[in-house]
Structure formats: C-alpha cells, structure tokens
Specification:
The chain is mainly beta. The chain is 11% helix and 38% strand. The protein has two helices and 20 strands. A hairpin with a 3-residue loop joins strand 4 and strand 5. It is globular. About 12% of the residues have low confidence.
Length: 304
C-alpha cells in the first residue's frame, strides 16, 4: 500500500513538472481547435490512416524488433536537441531504466506536432519489462492511465491523434518511471489537390535519371502492399528507405504508370519517386497486412 502511495506521489510530481514545462513554452505550443501550426517538419512522425478512423486512442504495446531500424538521430525535449544514436546508446546503457520516444522514419524525438486524425508510433524501452501504466495528460488537464504489459526491450504503441491540443505521455513499471513525450495535435486541414491536367507535360525520361538503366534493384518483402499510381509519369524510379526497388515499365512491369512493391507493415517507410525531372519523397505509415495507393503527378504534391 505504501509502495503504491510513493509511486503515486512520484508520478504526481513528474506530471506537475510536465504541465509546468508545457505552459512555459508559450501560447504557440498550446493548441486550440482554431490554432494553426506547421506540422510538415514532423511528417516522419505521423501518417494519415486510410479508410475509417481508428476507434482506439492507444493500442497496447507489441514487442518490436529494432534490428535494422535504428535511427540516425535522437532529439531531446521541446528544443529538439540532437544527438547521434551511438551517443544515445552510451547514455542509455549507463542510465538503464525506462524511456519513451516518438518514432520516426530516421529519428526518434520527445516532441512532435501532428495533424488531428493521424497516427503516430510510440517506442517504449524497458530494461526489465513487466506490468505497468501508460499515463497521458489530455489537453484539458485531466489524465488517464492504461494498464499494460511491457515487454523487456522495445515496445511499439500506436497513438491516434483524436483530440486537438497537447498530449503528454509517460509510463511506469514499479518504481522506474520513463521520461515524458509531448504530442501537439493540430486541427486537420485538408490540403487542396488541383484537378489533374496533362495538356503539355512530356516525361524527360531517360534524361537526367537518378540511376543508370542498368542498376540492379533490391527485392522487397513484407506483409503490406504499396502501389505508385501516376497518370502523367512513365518510366519513373522508385526508392524505399533509400534503396532502389525498381523502374516502372521495366523488368516485366507494364508501362502503365503503376508500380507495386511490398513493405513490412506497422511502421513508417520513406518512399521516393523520381523520373529525372520531378522528385517526390514522403514518409508514410503502412498498416500491417494493408494496401496503400500513392498518387504522384508532375507539378503537384504526393497524395495518398
């Protein structure tokens, strides 16, 4: 009984400190339904779900294999202080305990701004694992705790941005309490996509292609399918996580503006499409076992 009381006191102190830190950031960090914030710089930390909106705000931790998916950079705090992953490993090995991060395609961060309706991946790291609580402070100040089992090592937790404002999250297993992360949920504004017109576009391929025609693509595997679709581009090259995976219209692929490949689901991937003149790059989240269509047209932004 006394043990639970001590833990509650510690958490109350930490949560109070988190709220004070948030308020100290100024009004630009505190979002309301009418606030505007540029979330584009944090695009690697969220994805917009396809189809119907998720019904669960927080999904229970699943065991996560980090091999081959280590970030290049770690960002600490609201000020986004950057350190290399190797430096962080030295620090983490020394301190041990629990830590919580917002996972991106190439980095981890303790702060991100995302649009309402998007999904983000939280990475909970525990040296011991065990039963514990994930705590969340909502924008209106009330907090909720979810009782979960955390695996030793790395845990992936899906966060659905359903409520506008700042969400602060941390987790605790026994006396070991993690750092807090903050997710600013901005009001979602549907970007305008102009109607496609193709009266004069002539694809410059193969002039100024990114790779030579003889380049060998890697084979892709995974439980999810991605399809690039373009009405105005032909012979474009596709890159997945900076690896060349193929050229549309070659190697048995029809020259029809479509290119399909496989990815590992339940994580973010960097997708790049180029035809030598136009270059499109975006970090997207792929659901496990799902399919995603990525529309790319010359002179417009990538949209899904």
């Amino acid at each position: 009984m006394r043990r639970n009381h001590l833990i509650s006191m510690l958490l109350a102190l930490i949560l109070s400190t988190c709220v004070s830190g948030v308020q100290a950031q100024g009004p630009d960090q505190m979002l309301s339904p009418t606030s505007k914030v540029d979330v584009s710089q944090y695009s690697q930390y969220y994805s917009m779900p396809q189809g119907s909106a998720p019904t669960t705000h927080i999904i229970a931790p699943t065991k996560y294999d980090i091999n081959g998916k280590q970030p290049s950079t770690i960002y600490f705090g609201y000020q986004q202080q950057a350190v290399t992953y190797s430096q962080y490993q030295t620090y983490a090995t020394y301190t041990g305990g629990n830590s919580l991060w917002i996972q991106g395609a190439t980095s981890w961060t303790q702060y991100a701004a995302v649009p309402q309706g998007s999904s983000s991946s939280l990475l909970a790291i525990s040296s011991t694992g065990g039963n514990g609580y994930l705590y969340e402070i909502y924008p209106d100040g009330h907090f909720v705790k979810n009782y979960f089992y955390f695996y030793p090592g790395y845990n992936l937790i899906n966060f659905y941005a359903d409520t506008v404002g700042q969400h602060i999250l941390l987790f605790a297993i026994d006396y070991s309490i993690s750092n807090a992360v903050a997710i600013n949920v901005a009001p979602f504004t549907q970007a305008y996509t102009p109607p496609y017109q193709n009266p004069s576009y002539q694809n410059p391929y193969p002039r100024e292609i990114y790779l030579s025609p003889g380049s060998t693509p890697i084979s892709t595997t995974g439980d999810s399918q991605a399809t690039i679709v373009s009405q105005g581009m032909r012979g474009y090259q596709v890159f997945l996580d900076k690896n060349y995976v193929g050229t549309e219209g070659t190697g048995g692929d029809p020259l029809d503006g479509k290119f399909t490949f496989r990815v590992v689901g339940n994580q973010n991937h960097d997708v790049r499409v180029t035809d030598g003149q136009f270059n499109y790059q975006k970090t997207l989240f792929f659901d496990r076992g799902g399919t995603k269509t990525i529309n790319v047209e010359p002179g417009t932004a990538v949209y899904i």
